[in-house]
Amino acid sequence: MKYRNHITLTLLFSLASTFSVAQTFLVLEKMGTKKRFVFNIGEQINYQLVGQKSKEMRLLTNILDSAFVVNNDTIPFSTISMVNIGNKRQSGILTTAGPILIYAGVIILAIDFINRGLVQEGEYTWDSGIGLTSAALVTSGALIMVLRKNKKKIGSNGWWRLRKATIY
């Protein structure tokens, strides 16, 4: 009898906890692949509306079936043309590689200028090897920064879509 009451209470609490724990979030996913980015309630979302040039960054306060709410404004998924996912990137090496390569190219050129002009007390002459190395580093860093697309187009002209997801 004593164990039956414990088992009954344990089952009751476990069932009650499964009903009370549900998480709703906004998913930006690429159709046909497993690529996706998750926006939880309370996070900043950066989006652009159809027909507008400016982007808006707002706090996500609620997620409805076909819209989300930011600062008491309901934004339907169909009115969004682009979402910026720059703050959702997880890859640390590619995020930092672009600026580091640019800085390295500029620093190599500055060190060469200081070495030849001030330390050796001579007139600065252009060294094509240093210039080529510096230009290659700056160019590769800039290409990494430009080619990393943080903006995902949504709708008919893009493969990405927004949807509501709930985990129970």
Describe the protein in words.
A hairpin with a 3-residue loop joins strand 4 and strand 5 (67-70). This protein has a six-stranded antiparallel sheet with strand order 6-5-4-3-7-8, with no helix packed on it. Strands 2-1-9 form a three-stranded antiparallel sheet, with no helix packed on it. The protein has three helices and nine strands; from the N terminus they run H-E-E-E-E-E-E-E-H-H-E-E. The protein folds into two domains: 24-81 and 154-167, no CATH class; 92-147. It is elongated, with a radius of gyration of 26 Å. Helix 2 runs antiparallel to helix 3 (128-147). The chain has 168 residues and is an alpha+beta fold.
Largest sheet: 6 strands, antiparallel
What is the average of the pLDDT values? Answer: 82
The amount of helix comes to: 25-40%
Q: How many separate domains?
A: 2
What order do the helices and strands follow? HEEEEEEEHHEE
- Strand order, main sheet: write it out: 6-5-4-3-7-8
Structural classification: alpha+beta
Number of helices: 3
The overall strand count is 9
Low-pLDDT segments: none
Shape label: elongated
Please give the radius of gyration in angstroms: 26 Å
State which percent range the strand residues make up: 25-35%
**How far do the termini sit from each other?**
33 Å
